[in-house]
TrEMBL record:
Pathway: Protein modification; protein ubiquitination. It comes from Zygosaccharomyces bailii (strain CLIB 213 / ATCC 58445 / CBS 680 / BCRC 21525 / NBRC 1098 / NCYC 1416 / NRRL Y-2227). It is a multi-pass membrane protein. InterPro entries: PEX12, Pex_N, Znf_RING/FYVE/PHD. The keyword Metal-binding applies. Residues 28-281 form the Pex N-terminal domain. The keyword rRNA processing does not apply. This is Peroxisome assembly protein 12. It is found in: Peroxisome membrane.
Length: 381
């Protein structure tokens, strides 16, 4: 990230004010990876091992309790206090108000030499709500609408050729995909403007409401921007107030220390989650491959003599006549295809030679009889 932070972007004069597209994209990727990683750990180590009604509800409503409630509270705190989201703050990114172009140009010229951040560049209450809307509300609504769209598309596929005038058909088949395409094009156009140095916003809503990205070289929180100078003539607090003041300073210092530790541990934690997901995926693939290799180990193989009889195709083990319209059973023995289809359902799917039940024969509860699914393979001679 230190390499990305030194890359120029857009106008040279504003390179110290605006971050690079790599920093923003990296932050967005980590933000999208974190919920998936948390859900993977919870599902794999708790819900899968202790399945019950509570854990299943906990998993089914993951979007509501984690994405909306928990993440929403964390994001709202960071947006109101630091003008930044949770992940962006660890990447050294913040947002600021660009309604006053004069202040923006002045701050861009001052760059790192400036010791204060103008209050006019702070996000307004409405802009903070827009950022919260983009990070929490819109992703949740989009996921729910995508689920409803997939359900309705599947239902409409079974009624192909019929006249459907339901309002859901117009919304999810015609209107909603069009809105998604238009929104994607607007966001893409905004990113192109960012790469061209015309704006510091990377989304259409940010550009519409004059919200742009900046590197957190200067504090943007209210306490630093609107703090009043200390009156040296004012008498110091005594007794209880003095104790409360010292406790407040101690908690502030602890908050700074915990923030620094979190800034170091959070990227390492996300990286370890990524490595762990890769490791478990590789292990799962190996287990599945071993199961596929051993799936037919219990099926007896025909001897060399039986194989020669199979190739010669002399007699059927069911009718004991010359094999006509040959087929092969799962156990490796040849028989007449009509004989096999008649014999297996009457004998609970058992091989006429070995007496073992074939994996490709199943019992149909509705019809109350055995049926051949994949236990017989017809030979083309």
């Amino acid at each position: 990230m230190s390499f990305y932070s030194n890359l120029p972007t857009g106008d040279v004069g504003s390179s110290s004010l605006y971050p690079t597209i790599f920093e923003i994209v990296s932050s967005q990727e980590i933000d999208a990876l974190l919920p998936a990683s948390v859900r993977y750990i919870i599902t794999n180590y708790w819900i899968a091992r202790h399945p019950n009604r509570f854990t299943l509800l906990f998993n089914n409503y993951f979007e509501e309790w984690f994405q909306v409630l928990l993440k929403g509270a964390v994001e709202w705190y960071h947006i109101t206090e630091y003008n930044s989201t949770f992940v962006d703050r660890f990447y050294g990114l913040q947002r600021f108000n660009t309604s006053n172009k004069v202040l923006v140009q002045k701050q861009a010229k001052l760059g790192s030499s400036s010791k204060t951040w103008p209050r006019g560049l702070q996000l307004t209450a409405g802009q903070k709500k827009v950022v919260f809307l983009q990070k929490i509300i819109l992703p949740y609504v989009r996921n729910r609408l995508d689920e409803l769209q997939s359900q309705w598309v599947a239902q409409a596929a079974f009624r192909e050729g019929e006249e459907v005038y339901h309002w859901k058909h117009k919304i999810f088949i015609q209107f909603y995909p069009l809105v998604k395409k238009v929104w994607f094009i607007l966001d893409l156009f905004t990113k192109l403007l960012f790469l061209a140095g015309r704006t510091g916003a990377v989304s259409f809503l940010d550009n519409l409401f004059k919200i742009e990205y900046t590197r957190a070289t200067l504090p943007l929180n209210k306490s630093s921007a609107g703090s009043s100078p200390i009156d040296i003539n004012r008498p110091q607090r005594q007794n209880l107030y003095n104790l409360l003041s010292k406790c407040h300073k101690l908690l502030s210092s602890l908050g700074n220390v915990s923030g620094y530790i979190g800034s170091q541990l959070f990227p390492a934690f996300v990286f370890m989650l990524r490595v762990y997901q890769w490791w478990t995926t590789q292990d799962l693939s190996a287990k599945l491959q071993r199961k596929l290799n051993d799936i037919d180990k219990d099926i007896p193989r025909a001897t060399s003599k039986e194989l020669s009889e199979l190739r010669s195709g002399e007699t059927c083990p069911i009718c004991h006549n010359l094999i006509q319209n040959a087929c092969v059973l799962e156990t490796g023995y040849a028989a007449c295809y009509p004989c096999a289809l008649e014999y297996l359902p009457k004998n609970e799917g058992c091989c006429p030679v070995t007496g073992r039940k074939l994996l490709g024969c199943a019992y149909d509860k509705e019809l109350s009889k055995w049926k051949v699914v994949t236990g017989v393979r017809k030979l083309l001679i």
